[in-house]
């Protein structure tokens, strides 16, 4: 294991550069918000009344609200961990065909979690608004924390969706490039011969009947004018 010798070397290390990336920061914040939501509801989100030992959700005694918030935030936390691990190995998949698919999946999941977080925030806030003020002795702070950090999760997922969309725009598809040999063949076939290029004369044998124009004698190539003969006087 390499130990950095100075603060500058530590700042220039790959781990620190990875943690300073905007996408990594957004994923860390989203994971922390999701962790706060489901941990607060798991610890103090279920309370019992003084007259009954049965545990009930502090959000208007609606177990669906607590279950939805715990399950959604836990899955969001796992999603952040998985994509953090994939981002750490992004160099290995940078040159493969899976990079575009990975970025597209990142963008789609971020948009999906924006919608889920927004629905969860509205649902939890509505149930907390209809909850009796002194129904449970404990759990009020946990409910408020879950609602608050669910709202923060919406902003964090929006940031992740924006960063994923920007990566999709920057990752333009590589156009198809012909090889040098193929390009040379195409150019030679399609381009007309220039006036300065030498004329390739066909190789003929001794019994061949084909002749090149350059091999003809100038006397045969140029027609002669008829001569006038003088007739002797009779």
What does it look like?
It comes from Tupaia chinensis. InterPro entries: Marvel (IPR008253), Synaptogyrin (IPR016579). Its main location: membrane. By secondary structure, the protein is an all-alpha fold. The chain has a domain at 29-170. It has eight helices and two strands. It has a two-stranded antiparallel sheet with strand order 1-2. A hairpin with a 6-residue loop joins strand 1 and strand 2 (55-57). The longest helix has 32 residues, at 98-129. Residues 174-181, 183-187, 197-202 and 208-221 have low confidence and may be disordered.
Question: Features of this protein?
Answer:
234 residues, mainly alpha, 8 helices, 2 strands, 3% strand, transmembrane
